Every structure is written in structure tokens, then in C-alpha cells.
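Input (Chromosome partition protein Smc):
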Amino acid sequence: MARLTAHGPRRPRGPAVTSASTPAHRGPVRDVLTLVLLPLPLLAATLSSSFSAGGNGTRRWFGGGRAESQRAQAQAAKDDAAAAFYELDTAQRDLRISIETITAVDDSPAARRTVADFEQLGRRIDEVSGRYITAVDAHDLDRDDLDASAASRARAELTQARDELTRTKQDLDRFAQNLGPLLGKAETQLARLAPAVERARQALLAATNALDAVRQAGLKADDLAGRLAALGPELTRLNQGAGQHGVQETLERAERVARDAEAVRAEAERLPERAAEIDRRLVSLRTRTQALRTRAGQVEPVLSELRRRFAAACWQDLQHVPEQAEQNARQAEAKLTEARAARDAQRWPDATSLLSTVRALLNTTDESVSAASDRLRRLDAVAKDPQQEIDRTRFAIRDAQRLAMAGRTTPEPRHARPLDDSVGRLDRAVAGLQGRHPDYWHFLTETEAVRETAAQVVARIREERGGA
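Output:
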């Protein structure tokens, strides 16, 4: 927008005739005094020449009222136009700050359209401002010889310029009102910027202090130090500011730096506790490994009992348990040794991973060692009284059948069929108990499978009826 400092209207000096103190226009007072003091013959001649003179550079005493009135109206129009120009210029400068706020944060299509509309409006402002300045420069309202017609033209042109400036100011105000959502969003993000950057700096400082405390305690934290050092360039970019990298990018960087630095701080503060936990796990897992080796040595007598009393099908799948348990125990001890070395070197992730491997090995070995003892116990029970297992399984089938028939005269085939199959399966399992060395393990696995089928039918019926 054009600036008044470059082409602004000259400050009005007002009509010359109104200044009684100006040396060139002390006329009325000075002339009266002169006439009073003149001799009578000279006074008559002077009055005669004054009234007969056609001007000759002096203003007439009578007949100039219309020109002065037009001059005053033109001057008033000039003042109104200047005020409108100032208002438009101020509004445009204020709005430009809002536009710059939006463009600094928002690169959406809506923001780009707003910037384009503002630029178009700015070109219109330049045009009406140019016409105003041209009108001001075209008319010198301070001229002594300004006639009524010239003053009238000046008033008309300046009034038109004022009206154009006023209409443009109204359009600018409406445009500013429509910026509300975009400007609010941008201001919100700008309000977040400084606190976000400060949080990132404080997080980095806290992480540095935590790391220093860990090192003073004699613990190494090389991986944490490396992660913290990697945040150094990010801090440099934060310090360079949003003016260089953009508000949105700076906000995202600040949040990322704060999050990563907080993670480093938290891990550093947990490091002494983590070291102590690894020490406890080393002791606990070594004790458990030794106990499991002792238990693994007891599997062989259990297998001997199974071989002596039951058919081969009841224990063949357990033959490998003693050897596998011993192998797993040796592997666990080797991993514990590696974990101890990793802990002494303060390679915390390696130590943690190795201890997890040891725990998984011991869990698997414990299950297989327990399976042998559990097998013998279950086989003993069913050999003494298979009827208890039979009754338990028949009850599960009958319970499922009652539910399938509830409220019906005939059951759904998809429910009845698996239950009927289960009845036949149980009968065959019971029949298999005949003979000198029955396969009790097959009998147990079959009854367990039948109960599982009955439970699935019950669950399906309840789900269907619950949904209905």
C-alpha cells in the first residue's frame, strides 16, 4: 500500500485571509489606520484608486465569499480523505501481521487461498491509494488565486477518493472477520511454540544430569550417552528458531526431542535398579538351574516304574526327558555365564536377553520333568479306579445334551451330532480297557478329548442363545 511518507498530502495551511499575523495579509487593519492618518485630499484619491483597481495582486474587499466557501469545503474533503487513507493503511498493516502469522504456521490449501485473496486485495488498495494521492497532488488548496470552480473540482475528486478508501476499508474489515478460524488455529500453535521448545531444553538438561549421576555411581551408560549425543543437532535447530525452520516443523522437533530426552532420563534413573535386578535374577536362575538338574535326575526312576507297570504306549513319548533335561540344564548354565560377563561389562541389553533365554529353557525343562511324575500319578489313579474318569466324562456329555434339548423337542443337528459322536468315542475308550495291559494313557487322552468336545458344544449353544 502506498505510504503517506512518500506521497502524502501536504499539511493544510488554511485560507490565507484568516491569518491576521501574516505580514503579507495585514490588509484590513493596516489599510484603515493608513486612511485615517492620511490628509483629506490624499484620502479621497486613495479610496478612489482602491475601489477602481482591478486587483493587481491584491484581494478584493468584496465578492470573494463564494471562493472561500468552496476552498473550505475542499479542505474538509481533503481532511476526510486523509483520515480514510490513514484508517485503511493502519488496517492493512494490522491485517498483514495476521496473514504472516497464518503463513508461518499453516500451509493448507485454505491458508494459501487466503494469502492469494489478501494479495489481490492489496493491489486494489494500492490502486485507490494511488488515486487519492493523485487527487491530493493535483490541487493546491493554499493558493491565493484559487477560484471557486477549481475548489469545487478539488472537493469532488477528494470526496470520491474518500468514498473509495472507505469502501475498500469495509471490504478489508470483512476479509479480516473471515480469518477467524485460520488465525485462531495459527495463534494457538504459536502459543504452544515457546513452551514446547522450553520443555525440550529442560528434558535434555534433566537427561544430562541423570546420565552424570549414573556415571558418578560407577555405572557405564554408553548407549544412553550415544542417544543423548544424537539429540545435539536437534537442539541446535531448535535454537535457530521457527523463523528458519518453520513453526510446525519446530513444534514437531521440540516434541520429539522432549520425548527422546525423557526416555533417556528415565532409563538412566532406572539403571541402578536395573543392575540390581539383573544381579538378583542371576542368583535366582542359577539356583533354579541347580534344583532342576536335581529333579531331572529323578526322572529315570519314574520312567522305570512306568516301564514296569504300564504298556509302552503309556511312556514312550517320555523316553527323551532325562537326556533333554540334562542338555537344557547345561545350556542354561552356559547362558548364565554369558549373562554374568555381560553384566560385568555393563552390557545391560545383552544381559537381559540372555537371562530371558535361560528362563525359557528352564520353563521348558520344568514342564517335561513334571510331565513324567504327573503321568505316573494319573496312570496310577485310573488303573485303580477307571470308573471315576468314566463317570466324570459321561456327566459332561449329559450336561451338554440337557442344554441342547432345553426348550426344544429335538436338538439342533449341529449340536446333537458331536455329542452323539462323543458317546461312541467314550464307549470305545472304555472297551479298550479290557485286556492284561490296557493303554490307560490312550483312555485318559480320549476322555479328556470327549469332555473338551462337550464343553465346546455348551459354549456354542450359550453364545447362540445369548445373541438371540
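The two ends are 74 Å apart (CA to CA).
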